[in-house]
Amino acid sequence: MISRRIFDLEEHLGVRLLHRTTRKLALTSAGRQYLEVCKRVMQQLENEERALGTLQKEPKGLIRIVAVRSFGHRHMSGAIARFSMLYPDVHIQMELAPGTRTPITLNELGFDLGIAIGPTVNSDAVMQQIAKFVWVMCASRTYLKRKGTPQAPRDLANHDCIINPRLAPRAIWNLQCGPSRVEQQVGSVLSITSSLGCREAALADAGIAMLPSFSVTEDLRDGRLVSVLPSWSPPAASICAVYPHFSLIPKKVELLTNFLEGHFEGAFDLPDRNANIGKVGQTASEKEEPAKGSPTKVRAIRS
């Protein structure tokens, strides 16, 4: 078997590697040269394997991240800075992308990790939830004093609402309160394809906006914005880490993903979504459901 393979190798190389006699085998000059090359190649392979093993134990090198702008702009930079303090040999490059999701092929663009509002539509990717958030209808106190506070979802049809057409292309907000669900047509006064832009418009007293809690937690806490119809909201959603489909995820990427999950745990919860409601004329206990026979702009959904 070995002799056959040596013959095949000699034929492939076009040189004789061994002197063959009835008593012994000896390397030719070409054989000795080829042996030295093989030794160097094997040593290089051993060194590379050792280096790769070290990377899995001691993370270092570059991680390229793409994050949705609405989340990455406010929250990812600080998280990455803290991670870098723990792992100074890991270098991170982050790109902010428009929209709410990352409709990209990570492999094609060379990214190691994506941060998206899940779920994504890329079946080739692996997703891991790193945070939860809720959607909040909110407005400034000045706007609510001027236009009044909605008491039920149907009232939104007569209010100035700030729409993100990527989330509500027909100016319809999907709301639920316990088992009750409605598709509510809202009065649209302004359309902005960015949660950041919608937030700025709400702060400027333009109307009622539907915003993710990760964008307005501080605004609600400090009273710059007030929660509207706090019992009604779309279902809670997730922030997801998305990475290409690897059989083995690099240790540095796994460490970063787990770090982000711990860092954002509970960060976007709103423990008292009724806070400050009474100050603008709405009771904290409001849970009014759409009345029967209400306008056709409100359509109940049977679950």
List the helices and strands and how they pair.
Blueprint: H1 2-13, E1 18-20, E2 25-27, H2 29-57, E3 61-68, H3 69-86, E4 90-97, H4 106-109, E5 113-117, E6 125-133, E7 135-139, H5 141-147, E8 161-163, E9 172-177, E10 180-185, E11 188-191, H6 195-203, E12 208-212, H7 213-222, E13 226-227, E14 237-244, H8 251-263, E15 298-300
Parallel strand pairs: 3-4, 3-5, 8-11, 8-12
Antiparallel strand pairs: 1-2, 5-14, 6-14, 7-12, 7-13, 9-10, 10-15
Plain-language structure description:
The chain is an alpha/beta fold. The chain folds into 3 domains: 2-56, Arc Repressor Mutant, subunit A, CATH 1.10.10; 58-134 and 241-263, 3-Layer(aba) Sandwich (D-Maltodextrin-Binding Protein, domain 2), CATH 3.40.190; 135-235 and 279-300, D-Maltodextrin-Binding Protein, domain 2. Helix content is 34%, strand content 26%. The protein has 8 helices and 15 strands. The chain has helices at 2-13, 29-57, 69-86, 106-109, 141-147, 195-203, 213-222, 251-263, and strands at 18-20, 25-27, 61-68, 90-97, 113-117, 125-133, 135-139, 161-163, 172-177, 180-185, 188-191, 208-212, 226-227, 237-244, 298-300. The strands form 4 sheets. Strands 4-3-5-14-6 form a 5-stranded mixed β-sheet, with helices on one face. A hairpin with a 4-residue loop joins strand 1 (18-20) and strand 2 (25-27). The longest helix has 29 residues, at 29-57. It is elongated and about 105 Å long. It starts with a helix and ends with a strand. The model is unreliable at 274-303 (pLDDT under 50).
